[in-house]
Structures are given as C-alpha cells and as structure tokens.
Amino acid sequence: MKKKLRITFNAPLVLCFALACSAVALAGSITGESSTAKLFSTYRAPFSDPMMYVRLFTHVLGHAGFAHLVGNMAYILLLGPALEEKYGWKSLLAVILVTAALTGLVHNLIFPRTILLGASGVVFAFIILTSFTEFREGEIPLTFILVALIYLGQQVWDGITVKDNVSNLTHIIGGLVGGAAGYLMNRKARSSRF
Asked: Measured in whole angstroms, how far is the alpha carbon of residue 194 from the centre of its chain?
C-alpha cells in the first residue's frame, strides 16, 4: 500500500521567520513603507526611546522591497531547516537574536545617519554556521575556511571598493556570529557526549 504524501511544517522557527518577514514586507507595501521605517528598521535614536531597543531586533524582519526579501529568504529557507534540525530551534533563535542585536548596535554606532534593515546578517550567520556541521574537537573544517574566505572576504573587498546601499559590515558581523555559534555549539555538543 502506497503511503500518501503530505506537506510537513518541518522547520517551525525558520518557516515562522520567513512568514514574519513576508508579512512585514506586505505591510510595508500597503503602508507606503511607513511601518517598515517605524518598526522594522534600525537607526540611531535616543536611549530613552523604548522603540530603539525593539528595532534592534525587529530590523531583521524588514526588507527594502520584495527583491531584497526574496534574495534573503532563498538562503534562509535553503540553509535554515538543516540548521534547525541539527541545533534545535532555541539555539537557532539565539543566533538570530544575537545577530540582530549586534548588527543593529554596531550599525547605529558607526553609521548614525543611515537606517539598517534586512535579514542578510542572519543569512551570513547561517552560511558560516552551515560550514560547521561536521565540526570535530581539535579540527578546523576546511569548508569553514573556504566559506569564510569566499563570503567574508568578498564582503571586506566590496566594503572597500564598492559604494552601494549594501551593509557589508552587517554581513561580516553575521558571519562572525555564525562562526562563533558553530564553534561553541559543536564544542558543547561534543563535550556533553563524554
């Protein structure tokens, strides 16, 4: 007897994150991007403004149009399910939140007159974190070295040579968070087996 195929909600955190980003993009489109600017972008604001702290985390949900959203969600949906299966939703949520907070804080300190939005820091965290999936104590995966050289090296190069609206610093910080998380989570998982 053939088993019926069914659609499964296989990576709840990743799917909810992608749906939230899509809902924010739709709301931005409906409101003429005012909701995105007020709630889902980060920029320097007085420390007395409670929304400044909220936006440090919500800016990863906002995107500058559907092309920006689709580009980021393609990576999130490609890499995220395997990461969520390996590390669990709580650990992956911690990676997203730490990436959001660090990229937001650093951006607000260094670029006070520009806004930051988008999940590309999270994408780079996921890319680097993925290269740690076969990590063993006392070893550095060659895939990690190559991915770091290719992706982070390109961001450093583009940050120096290309003038556009892409926050290369956000990508670099996201990659560093992904690398640190990959090292720490795999080290902890390995030590808990002994």
From this structure: 32
Where do we find the tokens 């299966």? 85
10 Å CB burial of residue 188 (0-12, 13-18, 19+) is: exposed
Structure tokens at 194: 């002994």
Q: How far is CA 173 from CA 31, 65, 188, in A?
A: 31, 23, 22
- Crossing angle of helices 168-193 and 120-130, in 10° steps, is 40
Q: Looking at the domain that runs over 12-193, which CATH code has it been given?
A: 1.20.1540.10
Q: What are the pLDDT digits (tens) for 74-116?
A: 999 999 999 999 999 999 999 999 999 999 999 999 888 889 9
| Spatial distance between the Cα atoms of 82 and 185, rounded to a whole number of angstroms | 15
Let me know: does 139 contact 157? Beta carbons within 8 Å. Answer: no
| Domain edges within the chain | 12-193
* Spatial separation of the C-alpha atoms in residues 135 and 143, rounded to whole Å: 10
Contacts of 11 (CB under 8 A, 6+ apart): 80, 81, 84, 85
With H, G, I as helix, E, B as strand and everything else as coil, classify residue 103: helix
Q: What is the tens place of the pLDDT at every residue in 54-81?
A: 999 999 999 999 999 999 999 999 999 9
